Amino acid sequence: MPLTLPNELLSVRGLKAYFYTESGIVRAVDGVSFTLDRGECLCLVGESGSGKSTVALSILRLLDSPPARIVDGEILFNGKNLLTLPEKELLQIRGGRIAMIFQDPQSSLNPVLKIGDQIIEQIIQHKKMKKSEAKKRAIELLNDVGIPEAERRVNEYPHQFSGGMRQRAMIAMALSCGPEIIIADEPTSALDVTVQAQILEIFKELKDKGLSILFITHDLGIVAEIADKVVVMYAGKIMERGVVNEIFDKPLHPYTRGLFECLPTTMKAKKEFPYIPGTIPSMIDPPKGCVFHPRCRYKFEPCDKDIPKEYPVSDTHTVACYLYGGGK
Ligand code: SF4
Questions:
Q1: Predicted confidence (pLDDT) per residue in 82-136, tens digit
Q2: Could you report the per-residue pLDDT of 259-279, keeping only the tens digit for each?
Q3: What is the whole-number distance in angstroms between the Cα of residue 12 and the centre of ligand 1?
Q4: Is the CB of 238 under 6 A from ligand 1?
Q5: Would you give the distance in Å from CA 162 to the centre of its chain?
Q6: Which residue's alpha carbon is nearest to atom 1 within ligand 1?
Q7: What CA–CA distance (Å, rounded) separates 123 from 177?
Q8: Mean of the per-residue pLDDT values for the chain?
Q9: DSSP label at 308?
Q10: Of 20, 147, 192, 262, which is most buried with the most CB atoms under 10 A?
Q11: Can you tell me which atom of ligand 1 is nearest the CA of 302?
């Protein structure tokens, strides 16, 4: 069994997930490693197309294959590699010990089944429970996530719930089997601001209760609220990582700095609308050297030749940029 540290619950090591398309091989995730410890919240941050969701789907082997294929790496959960686990064992972990919440609850819930029946089905699949007990548990869970009149609403269909209530129901479903990890992929992006704040409160409470959370978002405001650790991704690679205070007090990678400069609160003081020039490159034919170099205002001699390593700037903070090592 591969070596893991005692507090380490999930360890993604050297993950490469590629899509084999007619136009070529899309290197969506290209050598990503991080660990999620027990009881912590790790936020994966980056623009759309940075590979965050592909990482999330890879963990539970939910990528459609073809065209996707995990070509390298390990994903260790309690020391077991999920990528090589027999499907039967993986089914017990998926939805049971590791649950996932997606961005759009509308498309994640079955529109023709009652909310309660969908939660009950999940409970019965993973726990040896009678249907009547599972229904009682479903009502408790809906209550816990703040659904009013849960006893009545358990019998309603998804279209009878508002967007915020549907996401609460998704969280109830994710919690139904007592998972050790929740992977939340942009769970508040489809909701309006007031509902976003309420859903975020639920995640904070779950974290306080000791649940480990892998939270995927492009919103640095959310990261400030909930993260213990932050991993910044760009074009399938990790640009910077650190504990939340390090990243917010001293963002170092030019990409991370660009993300902070584009925050509305930072923008107010400026006359010009700040932005990171250019777009995420094609991952079929990524730029040579540092993948960020075509957009980087600090690029210098080594940047378009070799890929920078992650250079440590403290025990917990690393930056994949030649400004912090290797290039001088
Ligand atoms: Fe910019 Fe060079 Fe650092 Fe890449 S390695 S972020 S191009 S300075």
A1: 999 999 999 889 888 999 988 777 778 889 999 999 999 989 988 878 999 999 9
A2: 998 877 655 556 666 778 788
A3: 25
A4: no
A5: 24
A6: 299
A7: 6
A8: 89
A9: P
A10: 147
A11: 2
Integer Cα distance of 327 and 288 in angstroms: 15
- The ligand 1 atom at the shortest distance from the C-alpha of residue 322 is 5
pLDDT of residue 12: 97
Kindly tell me if the per-residue pLDDT of 191 is higher than 80: no
Q: Nearest 5°: CA angle at 159, between 156 and 161?
A: 65
How many residues comprise the chain?
A: 328
Q: What is the whole-number distance in angstroms between the Cα of residue 300 and the centre of ligand 1? A: 7
- C-beta of 288 in contact with ligand 1 (< 6 A): no
Asked whether the beta carbons of 253 and 232 are under 8 A apart, the reply is: yes
C-alpha of residue 224 to centroid of ligand 1, in Å:
25
Write down the pTM of the prediction.
0.90
Cα 315 to middle of ligand 1, angstroms: 21
In the chain, DSSP assigns E strands to 8-21, 24-37, 41-45, 68-77, 80-81, 98-101, 181-185, 212-217, 229-234, 237-243, 311-312, 318-319
CA–CA separation, 159 vs 178, rounded Å?
26
Rounded CA separation 161/56 (Å): 27
Q: What tokens does 250 get?
A: 């001293």
Quick: pLDDT tens for 43-70.
Answer: 999 988 899 999 999 999 999 889 999 9
Ligand 1 close to Cβ of residue 235 (< 6 A): no
